[in-house]
Automatic annotation (TrEMBL):
Domain of life per record: Bacteria
Signal sequence, start to end: 1-23
Keyword vocabulary terms for this entry: Isomerase, Signal
Stated name of the protein: Thiol-disulfide isomerase or thioredoxin
Gene Ontology molecular function terms on file: antioxidant activity; isomerase activity; oxidoreductase activity
Gene: resA
Ranges of residues in domain Thioredoxin: 16-153
Length: 153
């Protein structure tokens, strides 16, 4: 009987996992918009984790702003994610304070997107137009390193 229960449980887990993989991940930004991850297929997606107490994170914001403006009309999107998971009103305060021009996600998508544990900041994840994680950049980035990461992937 015990092995039957284990088999049923394993089958249910497999079905649940398959359904989760097929389900679309919904990203919510700090402006209240919902972005379906599947709508980003065909685009490079960069997700940058940062924190207001992290000097390197703050130092890279002007470069990320420059990258965002440079690629506004390209199939490239850039999202900020607050590492501390602050409430949206506190995130908005920091976004204004540090002049973050690119969209910020209200909640952490790491689990839903399979990015793994975020153990430090800054870190930028590069997802190719097919929706696959192709690179993880640790430390501060600039426009050149971001452009190079996309070209190499």
């Amino acid at each position: 009987m015990n092995s039957k229960i284990k088999s049923i449980f394993a089958a249910l887990m497999l079905m649940t996992t398959a359904a989760m993989c097929q389900a679309d991940v919904l990203l919510k930004d700090t402006q209240g918009n919902t972005i379906s991850f599947s709508s980003l297929k065909g685009k490079w997606v960069l997700i940058n984790y940062w924190a207001g107490w992290c000097k390197t994170c703050i130092d890279e914001i002007p470069e990320l702003n420059h990258f965002y403006r440079k690629h506004e009309n390209d199939p490239v999107v850039l999202f900020a994610v607050n590492y501390d998971g602050l409430p949206v009103h506190k995130q908005k305060k920091l976004i204004r304070k540090f002049n973050i021009l690119y969209p910020s996600l209200a909640t952490d998508p790491a689990l839903a997107l399979g990015l793994g544990d975020i153990i430090g900041v800054p870190v930028t994840f590069i997802i190719n137009p097919q929706g696959e994680l192709v690179n993880t950049l640790y430390g501060g980035q600039d426009i050149k390193t971001l452009d190079t990461a996309i070209k190499k992937a």
